[in-house]
Structures are given as C-alpha cells and as structure tokens.
Amino acid sequence: MNMHSPSLLKIDNLESFYGPIMAIRGVSLQVQEGQIVTVLGANGAGKTTLLKTISGVMDPEKGTVHFNGKAIEGSAPDAVVRGGIVHVPEGREIFPILTVEENLRMGAYTRSDHAEIEKDLGLVYQYFPILKERRQQEAGTLSGGQQQMLAIGRGLMARPKIMLLDEPSLGLSPLLVKEIFSIIRRLNREQNVTMVLVEQNAKVALDVAHYGYVMELGRIVMSGDAKKLAQSKDIQEFYLGAHQETQRGQRRWKQRKTWR
Amino acid sequence: MDILQLFVSGAANGCVYGLIALGFVLIYKATEAVNFAQGDFMMLGAFITLGFNNAEYMDLPFWISCILAIGIMGLLGYLLDFVVLRRMFGQSQVAVVILTIALGFVIRFIAGVIWGHEPQSLESPMTGVEVRFGGLVLGLDEIVVIAVTIVLTIALFLFFARTKLGVAMQASSQNQLAAYYMGIPVKRIHSMIWALSGIVATIAGILFASKSSIDPNAGLLGIKAFAAAVIGGFGSLPGALLGGLIVGLIEPFSARYMPAGYSQIMPYLLLVLMLFIRPHGILSQVQTKKV
Questions:
Q1: What is the mean pLDDT of chain B?
Q2: To 5 degrees, how large is the angle CA B263–CA B264–CA B270?
Q3: Would the pLDDT of A3 be above 80?
Q4: B246 domain-assigned
Q5: Do A98 and B170 lie within an 8 Å CB cutoff?
Q6: What are the E-state strand segments in A55-176?
Q7: Which domain holds residue B190?
Q8: Alpha-carbon distance B34 to B26, whole Å?
Q9: Is there a contact between A89 and B181 if contact means CB atoms under 8 Å apart?
Q10: In chain A, is it the N or the C terminus that has fewer CB atoms within a 10 Å radius of its CB?
Q11: Taking CB atoms and an 8 Å limit, are A97 and B285 in contact across chains?
Q12: What pLDDT shows up at residue A43?
C-alpha cells in the first residue's frame, strides 16, 4: 500500500467486546481514498464487529479510528453518517413496509440539501434502473437481489466518502453477485466512493478490491495487494478452495496455515 | 331511529377508545413496549385541561386550556421517555410493562391529590348542546368527538406518510437497527413518539371529559382501549381506531339488546374470540423477512 499519502480511514489497535467476549482483538488497518479494501474471513472472525465499531453502532473498548485525520471512535452513528461514512449492513436490513423511494430518502436523513438529494435520487435510479421501475412498491416485496441493490442505493443517498459493505453477496445467485459487484466497481470508479468490503466470497471480493486483509478470530493475520493475496497459497487453499494435487492424487488431509 | 342514536353515541365512545388505543399502538410500534399507563395519560390530560379551564380552578378560556394541556402532556411524554424509559433499554419487556403499570398508579394518585376523587366534568362549549336532525337528537359533544377523531386521524396519516420525521418514525419502528445505520437518531425519535402519544391521549381525555365526567380512576378505561387495540391488530394505526369503534359500538348495543351485565364483558369476550380466530387482529401488518 502506498504509505506516503495519508489514509482516509486509519484504524489502530481496535478492541471491541460483546459483553465479556472479545470480538476483535487489536485490529489495525488503513484505507486510502478511492480504494476498494476487502476484509476476508470466515464466520465469527469479527468482520461485522469491525464495521459496526467503525460506524458507531458499537463502541470500542480500546484503540482509535481516524477518518480524514479526525478521531471518530465512540461517536454516535448519526454523527458518523454525517461525517461521510455509511454502513450497508449484512442481510440488507431495508425498511420492509416503506416504499422503495421512501427507503432511499431515509438514506439521506442526515442531509437537508433538497436539490442535491433529488439529484442523488436520480443517480441511484441511474445505477439501479429496477429500483426506479419499482419505486412505489413496498420494499419488503422486492427480491433478495433487488433488496441488496436498495440497501446499496440507500447507503449512496447519504453521499458517503466511505461505504462499509457487509456481505453484499449473501444469499444471492452467482449471476446477481456478478451484477452487484460490477456496480460496486462502477460506483468506486465513477463516483469516487471508497469502499470497505467485508466478504466470505473471497473470489469476487479479491477480484474487485485493490487491497485485502484476512481476519481470523478477531485478528488480522494477513494483508497485501488483492492480486498478490489471490495468488498466495494459503488464500487459495482456505478461501478460494483450490485443490492441490499430491503425488498420490489425493488432497492432503491436513494443511497448516502459514500464519499459525 | 333508535338504532341510529345508539350508533352515534357508540361511535363517539368508540372514538375515545380508538384514540387511547392509538397511543398504545404508537408506542408499541416504535419501542416494542406496551404503555399500560396510556389510559392514565388520558385521565391526566383531561384533568390538566380541566384545571386550566374550569371556573373553580384557573378559569382560562377553553381553547387556551386545551393547547396548554396538550403542550404539557407532550412535554411530559417526551421527558418520561428521556428520563425514565431510556434507562430501561436492554431490560426485559416485562420490566417495562411493570414500570408503566406502576406509572399508572403514580399518575392516579397524583391526580387524586390535586383534583380530588369526585367525578368532575370539563366545562366545554359543547356540553349540553343538542343538535336535531329530523327526529334524531344528538349531543353536540358526540358529533364533535367523531369529527375531531376523523380530523386527527387524517392529520396523523399525513404526518406519517408525508413528512420526513413521520417516515423516519415508521422506518425506525420497522427496522430499528437499519435506522441507526442510516443516521436516524432513534432514541430522540422514541422520545418524540412518547410525546405524540401523550398528545393523542390528551385529546382523547378532553373529548371524554367533555361528554361525560372524569375521576382519577377513569384511566382504567385504558384496559378497554387495550382490548380494542388487540382486536384491531396491535401494530396497526387504522386497526386501533377500528378496534376502538367496534368496542364502542358493541357496548350500547349489547346493553340494549342483551341481558343486563353483558355489555360490560362484551369487549373482553370479543377480545378472547379474536385471539382464537385471528390472533394478529383485524388489520395487522405481518410481513415475513426474505433471505
């Protein structure tokens, strides 16, 4: 990563707890402006907790989160959204009996620049034409893929500098995953939205990201350029599911991870 | 003619039940807590208006008393959430229920100390005035109750459907977590919902006290309104009003056409029946989450 330009988001030694359980144990990471940074990891690795701590839904026990050089750890969620970080949560979490358009407008709740909100609504409809078609429909009646589009569009309505995306591929067909990720890539390029992308689907995530971190049991165990990560043996074995042929033509039954 | 008369007075009663039920539903939808002091809010609102308005107390003009009482009860609702209920966050539902029941006792006691335990009537401009439609004799108060309820319903509908704050209230009741993520100040919105339900309860109280009398135990009417809310569908605002109307109408009709005593148990009989047939109530918004 380019260490010379100051990072847009800088996290140092972050620790967060669910009651007595330490969910993230001293995580540090950096996100440069204009990048897509992915955080990979299995269930329970602490990825979602990390995002929740950044967006202020959870308060950290220790550590700092700097956004644009300002410490934001422990701020209320509405202050964080106003500052320019929006969290698109796991499992869509739309407002089921509001219409699609009302859902989108709620994304702009912290803003009061009406003309600009209308403009951004047009922008969201441009990226997701299906939402425009269904704008008067109750959001709960949308399909899973459309709900994910709505969740991303709603996040966009806050006009964020950074978007925290939690498992956008969850429960979607491969075709839809492809579509969603191509839109994520376009948003990053065309609207200059920096993304922090949490994923279990390592293949698509590393494909779209510039830089990647791997989390396990609340710690970052590996990081690097997305391309390099995709080629590393550990990532291939444990996250991309590559099978190495051995002399006997079988998969070795026990492979140790290099970071353990 | 007889039936029409029963219908109008039943509907007027039903509107009061409906408005109290509306307060139940507002708070339940937003905070998932049931405010069993809602009836006592109604009583307190009525007594505050009465305290400002009646000749033996402050003798202010009727409209000013109403506005003052509505303002005070709105503020009280807000502060109650801000000071007391916000601290209950994360506690079990039962704890909140018990808290609101206790709150009801406190309000009843305070009202008794200030205004006494005798039934009193609000001296409003519409008491005792009769309106004649052909052979039909109606109290002006009954017509006003129905009219005010209709106007208030339309106003609330427009508020929830058209204003940013109203939509945000709906949003945070549908998905509190997502509302947090969108930067909606959920806690402040909860306090505002409590304020709103205090205001609605006061309007119900003013209407109730001007068409009959009120005493500190009038808040127990809230139980009937609770039944109304369940019948209409807990969680649905139109359902609360509909449930109120049904309970309001069934009372005078069963008093007229059934053996004595039945009219008191009819609302609860209906409640039990409803729980057997359609536990979600008549107009319920039940949706399943898609994966």
A1: 89
A2: 80
A3: no
A4: yes
A5: yes
A6: 62-67, 70-71, 85-88, 162-166
A7: 2-277
A8: 9
A9: yes
A10: C
A11: yes
A12: 82
SS3 per-residue string spanning chain A: CCCCCCCCEEEEEEEEEECCEEEEEEEEEEECCCCEEEEECCCCCCHHHHHHHHHCCCCCCEEEEEECCEECCCCCHHHHHHHCEEEECCCCCCCCCCEHHHHHHHHCCCCCCHHHHHHHHHHHHHHCHHHHHCCCCEHHHCCHHHHHHHHHHHHHCCCCCEEEEECCCCCCCHHHHHHHHHHHHHHHHHCCCEEEEEECCHHHHHHHCCEEEEEECCEEEEEEEHHHHHHCHHHHHHCCCCCCCCCCCCCCCCCCCCCC
pLDDT at B123 over 90: no
Mean pLDDT for the stretch of residues B77-101: 89
Q: Which two tokens stand for residue A151?
A: 């969740």
The answer regarding whether domain A9-89+160-238 maps to CATH 3.40.50.300 reads: yes
B177 CB neighbours in chain A (<8 A) are 57, 89, 93
- What ipTM is given for this predicted complex? 0.82
The pLDDT of residue A4 is above 60: no
Asked whether the beta carbons of A212 and A224 are under 8 A apart, the reply is: yes
Q: Are A220 and A214 in contact (CB under 8 A)?
A: yes
Say how far apart CA B183 and CA B30 lie, in whole Å. Answer: 16
Q: Rounded CA gap, A44 and A50, in Å?
A: 11
Q: What is the CATH number of the domain that holds B234?
A: 1.10.3470
Please give the residue of chain B at the shortest CA–CA distance from A114. B164
Cα–Cα distance for residue pair A80/B97, rounded to 1 Å: 34
Please check whether residue B108 is in contact with residue B217, taking contact to mean a CB–CB distance below 8 angstroms. yes
What is d(CA A189, CA A195) in angstroms, rounded to the nearest whole number?
11
Nearest to A34 by CA among A203, A192, A168, A216: A192
Q: Which residue did the predictor score with more confidence, A111 or B211? A: A111
Beta carbons within 10 angstroms of residue A9's beta carbon: 23
Bridge partner residues of A31 (DSSP): A9
Q: Would strands A36-40 and A194-199 be described as parallel, antiparallel, or unpaired?
A: parallel
> Please, are residues A229 and A206 in contact by the beta-carbon 8 Å criterion?
yes
Taking only the tens place, the pLDDT of each residue in B131-172 is 887 777 788 888 899 999 999 999 999 999 899 999 999 998
Tokens of B57: 């107390």
List the single best residue of B182, B237, B291 to mutate versus A (max A Cβ within 10 A).
Answer: B182
Integer-rounded Cα Rg, in Å, for chain B is 19
The two beta strands, A85-88 and A162-166, are parallel
- Please give, rounded to a whole number of angstroms, the shortest distance from the CA of A119 to a CA of chain B: 18
Considering the domain boundaries, does residue B157 fall inside one? Answer: yes
Domain count, chain B: 1
Q: Are B89 and B159 in contact (CB under 8 A)?
A: no
> How far B218 CA lies from chain A's nearest CA (Å)?
36
d(C-alpha A18, C-alpha A16), whole Å: 7
HSE value, Cβ hemisphere, 13 Å, CA-based, for A224: 10
Q: What is the pTM of this model?
A: 0.85
